[in-house]
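lol forgot to send this yesterday, sorry. struct tokens for the thing we talked abt
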């Protein structure tokens, strides 16, 4: 307990020295733990001095994906767009617990009931189990 408290106090002191407010992203992240590397894309918000100054001041390496790598996370971005438009924007979640329950139900629907055009109108679960049943899938 003493080590954890000391680390937290040290991070708080570093945050004060860096002029970070207790609500800043970097301050909150440092209180929870200290990564060796922070990886981002090259978006303007991540290349700004206001973002990079904090991890650099805490001796955390900043790594940015190379130019032309914008499509690396296109599938994740598309999934989250779908989740927002088909679930989050349509429901009014008042608590984190409601959000968790709603997203759990939505992902069950998404994977087992919702047909996907890109999968020839099969569900991801159907596609997965078809692939797993093919001997070549394990080669």
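and heres what i got for the seq, position by position
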């Amino acid at each position: 307990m003493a080590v954890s408290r000391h680390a937290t106090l040290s991070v708080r002191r570093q945050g004060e020295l860096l002029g970070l407010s207790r609500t800043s992203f970097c301050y909150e992240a440092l209180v929870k733990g200290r990564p060796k590397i922070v990886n981002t894309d090259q978006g303007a918000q991540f290349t700004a001095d206001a973002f990079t100054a904090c991890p650099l001041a805490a001796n955390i390496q900043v790594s940015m994906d190379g130019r032309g790598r914008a499509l690396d996370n296109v599938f994740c971005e598309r999934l989250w767009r779908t989740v927002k438009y088909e679930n989050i924007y349509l429901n009014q979640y008042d608590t984190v617990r409601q959000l968790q329950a709603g997203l759990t139900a939505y992902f069950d629907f998404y994977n087992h009931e919702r047909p996907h055009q890109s999968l020839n109108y099969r569900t991801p679960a159907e596609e997965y189990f078809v692939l797993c049943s093919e001997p070549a899938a394990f080669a």
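The mean pLDDT is 74. anyway ping me if u want another try
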